């Protein structure tokens, strides 16, 4: 939601505009042409302020909608993972993800597989945090 101060300013501008418009409507012929022009100018200025504040509210709402969309995507992505006690897996993906990176920095990073050889056993390594997962 937009912050309360922005909404308060917008409502204040709206009230000012309505008060000026009501004064113009209720005024009798006693207002001179100069006074009427001044009131109309005040009304236009107040409406311009209101338009600016409402544009700020709209921008804030668009930003919040984008943030909500991004958070929903993160939730869906996290729910699509399973954890086997060592690795995170995504259905249909044959390469596991680094548990350390996912749990510490919420980064979904595939592990690099190394076959067993004369120098070591079969294992996975995260190329970012360098965690080694023995098999």
Topology (elements, then pairings):
Blueprint: H1 4-26, H2 33-79, E1 81-83, E2 88-90, H3 99-105, E3 112-114, E4 123-125, E5 132-134
Entry summary:
The protein contains 3 helices and 5 strands.
Describe the model:
Keywords: Coiled coil. Residues 47-81 form a coiled coil. The protein is mainly α and 135 residues long. The chain has three helices and five strands, in the order ααββαβββ. It has a three-stranded antiparallel sheet, with no helix packed on it. Strands 1-2 form a two-stranded antiparallel ribbon. A hairpin with an 8-residue loop joins strand 3 and strand 4 (123-125). It is rod-shaped, with a radius of gyration of 31 Å. The model has no long low-confidence stretch (mean pLDDT 86).
Give the DSSP E fraction (strand runs of 2 or more residues).
5-15%
Low-pLDDT residue intervals, each spanning 5 or more residues: none
Determine the structural class based on helices, strands and strand pairing. mainly alpha
The count of helical stretches stands at 3
N-C termini distance: 48 Å
The helix fraction, in percent, is: 55-70%
Can you tell me the overall shape? Answer: rod-shaped
Question: What key phrases describe this protein's structure?
Answer:
coiled coil; 135 residues; 2 domains; mainly alpha; two-stranded antiparallel sheet; rod-shaped; single chain
